Amino acid sequence: MKRCCLALSLFALLAVHAVGQEPAPLKVHMLGSGEYSPVESLTGFKKYLEERYRVQCTTSFSKDSKSLPNLEALKSADVLVVFLRRMNLPEEQMALIRAHWEAGKPVVALRTASHAFQPADNEVFDRQVLGGDYKGAGSYSTPFKAIPVKEQAGHAVVQGVGPITSKGYYNNGKLAEDAIVLQVVESERKTPQPVTWAHTYKGGRTIYSSMGVPEDFQDDNFRRLLTQAIFWTAQREPNVLKLAK
Q1: Whole-model pTM?
Q2: What total of structural domains would you count in the chain?
Q3: What CATH number is given to the structural domain containing 159?
């Protein structure tokens, strides 16, 4: 009887200790290649995340369009961040990426990610996973200001995010019916142009933003937007995971 009570007491002590433990790190895997210096930008953002939050980042960065190293790490990732352009990957690598989104796991996609792969995969990734409809780039240098949609100002992804001045707006056609536009181009147009939106695919949360030029990654508002997008898609609270310095 004493042994039983001792075992129960030990179990209770361990349970209390477990409740007080820090949450497991959020595992983020980043894919970067192509235009707009994604490798350099994501390398800097990786450091930014890891210095401030309980996050473990792995990467698959490439200077060409034919392969991505270290893709095996994606299998254990919670969130996939995609900043690629027209990759022509070996089937075994593409299969690993498809497996992530087909499992309904979180995705955050930036700028050229709307056409990250070859046409057949783009059709699925852009239209179905992200809920977009990429129609090509406009001017590569014309500035625009992304502002939160008033009705979505309280959404976790844009909460506390001020206007962001970027450049080179990307055109989209009709978004998916269930896409939620979070940021638009500030203008006098009757129908504002979407910049950032949320979507779901097979139960998994996704965020796409057409921003991502190198200057954006130096903007505190953009870094906040991207950080909150990562945690929101993972259904995790960034303030809980923030490390004390």
Answers
A1: 0.89
A2: 1
A3: 3.40.50.880
**Domain assignment of residue 69, given as a range:** 26-237
- Amino acid making up residue 237: E
Q: Has residue 133 been placed in a domain?
A: yes
SS3 category, 242:
strand
Is the residue at 58 inside a domain?
yes
Q: Which residues contact 14 (CB under 8 A, 6 or more apart)?
A: none
pLDDT per residue, tens digit, the chain (245 aa), is 444 444 434 434 444 344 456 778 999 999 999 999 999 999 999 999 999 999 999 999 999 999 999 999 999 999 999 999 999 999 999 999 999 999 999 999 999 999 999 999 999 999 999 999 999 987 788 999 999 999 999 999 999 999 999 999 999 999 999 999 999 999 988 889 999 999 999 999 999 999 999 999 999 999 999 999 999 999 998 854 444 43
DSSP 159: T
